[in-house]
Amino acid sequence: LDTLSNISSEKSLLQAIPADWVFPTVNHDRVRQPLNAALESPDLSYVSKRGFYAPRTARRIRQCDVTYGALHAWEDGARWMVLPLTCNSVACPLCARLKSIDRARRAARIAGLDHASLRWMTFTIENPPPGRLVDSMDRMGQAFRFLRHNKSGEAWARHVRGSLWAFEVTHNVRADTWHPHYHVLFDGLYWPRAALLDAWQARCRRQGLVGSVYIGRAHNRGRPIESVKDKLAAVIEVTKYTVKPLSEGSFKPNRIAELLDALYRRRTHGSAGSLALLRDPETPVAWKWIAPLSRFDNALADEPGRRYIIDGIMASLEDKPLLKLSLLRSSQMVHDHTPPPEFG
């Protein structure tokens, strides 16, 4: 919700409305405007290698979270729901945050976390220059897959019972180079750095890369792991990684386009074994799509059932005051829903 930026305590916000209705948009517009400007810049000359199309992405991000969708329950005619319409783009700061929240929510359900022995690893390669990011990420991904899937040895299986990984790319503005790397949190046995480095460099050499690796004990923001809560914090830390250059203010058109092209339709997170993230159970479809909420904004529109839909939506928001406030602020439904005062 837009009102999140005006709440001093996020805890009070979560107490006010259910967590499912919290959609942080604090930094969305601040990042979205320069990002769209870069993607639509006349100086953009980057040629896509993976099918990324900058104007389409800019259009999707511009339209993200500007309106809501209205849904109606199939069985219970008194139940309505409104949700923000998001773009699901890897470049969108809001959608990246929502995906991180979803992964963190699923991570909280990992079974046996209290018995896990957690350590972290970071796999890197020599920083590629501009124009080489896509190729470097392709080859680095191959090396990482071979290391995990035992296609060229059993080093991983001997040490790792379960793992949670995230791929991240940062941009060194001063040197103008890319820094792709994998963050890995794993449950398993002690793995000497020299042996781990040999295993990683062997996979990298087969891909024509120069690799390096770092390993250490998992921690909770610098504090040692002492409880299950600390372990969960370490797990959630891995789930939150997003596209760093977009949050650091680096909006050079060709660099942004190359980054988004390299990430286009590429898997950036994964889990396995004892740290596998559980999937939500499939449930029967309970909601049917009605229309974007903007369809009902115009007070002059006189469509069949319009009054029924608006009244149903408003009734469903009585116990969600912050969401209702956000809707009424951004929609003209408030003029239609609120009757004129009676005089006399």
From TrEMBL:
List GO BP terms, alphabetically.
DNA replication
| InterPro entries xrefs | Rep (IPR000989)
GO molecular function per UniProt:
DNA binding
Q: Name one Pfam family in it.
A: Rep_1
Alphabetical UniProt keywords: DNA replication
Protein name, entry field: Replication protein
Task: Tell me what organism the protein belongs to.
Answer: marine sediment metagenome
